[in-house]
Amino acid sequence: MATLVIAEHNNSQAQASTFNTIAAAKLLSGETTVLVAGHNCQSVAEQIAKADGVTKVLVADAEHYAHLLAEDVEKLVLTQADNFTHILAPASTFGKNFLPRVAALLDVQQISDITAVESDDTFQRPVYAGNAIATVKSNDSKKVITVRSTGFDAVAQEGGSAAIESIATAEQAGTANYVGEELTVSERPELTSARVIVSGGRGMGSGENFAMLEELADKLGAAVGASRAAVDAGFVPNDYQVGQTGKIVAPELYIAVGISGAIQHLAGMKDSKVIVAINKDEEAPIFQVADYGLVADLFKVIPELNEAL
Amino acid sequence: MKILVAIKRVIDANVKVRVKGDNTGVETANVKMSMNPFCEIAVEEAVRLKEQGVASEIVAVSIGNQQCQETLRTALALGADRAILVKTDDDVEPLGVAKVLKSIVEKEEPQMVLLGKQSIDGDNNQTGQMLGALLGWGQGTFASKVEVADGKTQVTREIDGGLQTVELSLPAIVTTDLRLNEPRFASLPNIMKAKRKPLDEMAIADLGVDVAPRIETLKVENPPARKEGVKVESVAELVNKLKNEAKVI
Ligand SMILES: Cc1cc2nc3c(=O)[nH]c(=O)nc-3n(C[C@H](O)[C@H](O)[C@H](O)COP(=O)(O)OP(=O)(O)OC[C@H]3O[C@@H](n4cnc5c(N)ncnc54)[C@H](O)[C@@H]3O)c2cc1C
Ligand SMILES: Nc1ncnc2c1ncn2[C@@H]1O[C@H](COP(=O)(O)O)[C@@H](O)[C@H]1O
């Protein structure tokens, strides 16, 4: 048994999801190796080498890994696959993009979005927007798995001293080229690793009105999220979307403002520790998952809340 | 160019899904079924590319039971030119679906395959990427914009940090995200017309691909229930509870 985790990072730092994925790997019986593919990404390798539970870090540094295109990551991971029984990546847009390609070429049925490890071949994963939890057993000789970050507490990022080893890069695939990125820049914590999230829905009425939530978020050191309706209406960028088909979050405190609580939204946040719902409709389904519900007009109570904090 | 669109029939997004009493799966008897919402977006995008003069023919493909015919007829009413039903009464896993689609692609030779980014039943988010790898093609997953010119496609992708644009040489795979377009409704005349469009059927066994399942579902359970919450009357009470009861602020 031996596990390979593919690190998610931005060439200077590992994303939090990498440490959640290593935590899932630790529950398997094999030792954990982490692969860092990137460009000028040595600092990422050094950071991960200190993480708890990591035996070895492999580094593949090349210009064509700068943006971690799926076609190129696929080819690289395949060069290492023979040495491992389990290949894991975070169930983020990074992991979801390339890992099924690896699985297909290994002739393995990938298991997506696991939230628990029962044994080396048996895992839990939510299906139907989290309306059901399936326990599944893989009969493939290798297991290829994406890990839902909210299912596993991140490993400690200190104390470890894994060996770092450079590996040969694979040839560039040539079928896809990176053109550009428009990334949301924010001083606030990242949505998927924030301790507190303040989310707005259609009830916010406009993008300008999100300023109220940003003020609240800044008071709480929170990230700002949104429902699909708020993103579709153009109030906030796409990467704010929480839900079945957006980001899955489980902060200590989730404050849903002007969000009705459709099943697809609940799928992304109902594992939060404490949920607060603010909605003027007392029948809104969001109140069924809320620990604290406030039936009120958000335009009245959010300024009051900002005042009180 | 020819576009192939892969369509899955799933439990309708508005149905409250219920776990079966014997924990073997979810209730499907007398439950409304529809085209997977991401597949609707894929059909719409293909139709728009045809309206722009980029696409010349749209072929819709579904792998599933006889009722998938209905879903394919919907795709035909929305603007697909022909449809192929690959029939099976068994659940086919994404790897199996990708293998079947590969064999269809080899026959049809499309320049683009459009798929949904995920099916809302299994939430796998795998099939498009697997098909891309099996064919050795590039992919633009989670697309919010697709442009085709000069034998290439530029795809803007919804990623966790924002948006990313990639350029792919054709043929290529595109999987759709929610913001790619807003699907139209089929008009009555188009629904009538769709009844006369060609819909070929074949048995999965005739394709000679191995679709035997690799995953056993041991049980399907309800998610853990949350404990019942309370209503608070004021902002002051809320702040007090968050500070002193939940101790989260
Ligand atoms: C395939 C598919 C995938 C989807 N994926 C997602 C997803 O990932 N994430 C997601 O969020 N949704 C998703 N959805 C959409 C989902 O079904 C809902 O449509 C969406 O979540 C609704 O957003 P909302 O709650 O902001 O809007 P609405 O349902 O319109 O609710 C607005 C709420 O605001 C309240 N309100 C209005 N004004 C005020 C006020 N002044 N004060 C207080 N309250 C007020 C109203 O009472 C109402 O409850 C998906 C849907 C489909 C079909
Ligand atoms: N049985 C099927 N028949 C046709 N297309 C499918 C089937 N299963 C999955 N797909 C396609 O693959 C996409 C992603 O599905 P999945 O990988 O299951 O999340 C869907 O939106 C469809 O476009």
Description:
The complex is a heterodimer of chains A (309) and B (249). Chain A is an alpha/beta fold and 309 residues long. Helices cover 25% and strands 27% of the residues of chain A. In chain A, the strands form three sheets. In chain A, strands 5-9-4-1-2-3-10 form a seven-stranded parallel sheet, with helices on both faces. In chain A, strands 13-12-14-15-16 form a five-stranded parallel sheet. A three-stranded antiparallel sheet of chain A has the order 6-7-8, with no helix packed on it. Chain B has a single domain (2-244), classed as HUPs (Rossmann fold). The radius of gyration of chain B is 21 Å and the shape is globular. The model of chain B has no long low-confidence stretch (mean pLDDT 97). In chain B, strand 8 (152-159) and strand 9 form a beta hairpin. Chain B has 249 residues and is of the alpha/beta class. In chain B, strands 9-8-7-10-6-1-4-5-11 form a nine-stranded mixed sheet, sandwiched between helices. The termini of chain B are far apart. In chain B, helix 2 crosses helix 5 and helix 3 packs across helix 4 (127-135). Classes of the chains: A alpha/beta (309), B alpha/beta (249). Strand 16 of chain A pairs parallel with strand 13 of chain B, so a sheet runs across the interface. The complex binds flavin-adenine dinucleotide and adenosine monophosphate. Flavin-adenine dinucleotide sits between chains A (201-203, 227-230, 241-246, 258-260, 262, 264-265, 268, 279-281, 284, 297-299) and B (13, 37, 120).
